[in-house]
Amino acid sequence: MKVLAQPTRLKILEVLRKRELCVCEIVPLVNGEQSNISKHISVLEKYGLVFTRREGIRVFVRANPLVYEILEKASQALKSLLEVQKKRLEEIERRV
Question: Is 57 exposed, middle or buried (0-12, 13-18, 19+ CB in 10 A)?
Fold first, then answer.
């Protein structure tokens, strides 16, 4: 999960949600610098969250569809934890 905790990586995954993109297309979409975006893509690829392919000098990136299932499960879990904390806080406030 630590690999998904970085905001730039989440932005990259979001722009890849619908289709494969060239790194040169991703850079402006996430307002980053090419070298930095390439490093983040390398980390995502290392953990199997994206796949890359080379076409001449261009590098294309596509997301592993499972990453969106992981993100959805994490989102649900966090919402559930937030709800539990909210109820606990309400109980404490009632006692005070």
Answer: exposed
| Three-state secondary-structure class, residue 62 | strand
CB 4 within 8 A of CB 74: yes
- Go through the domains of the chain in sequence order and give each one's CATH number: 2-95 (1.10.10.10)
pLDDT at 94 over 90: no
What is the pTM (predicted TM-score) of this model?
A: 0.80
Identity of residue 65: P
Contact 85, 15 (CB under 8 A): no
Angle separating helix axes 66-95 and 7-15, nearest 10 degrees: 130
Q: Pull the structure tokens for residue 71.
A: 């993100």
Give the tens place of pLDDT for each residue, 11-46: 999 999 999 999 999 999 999 999 999 999 999 999
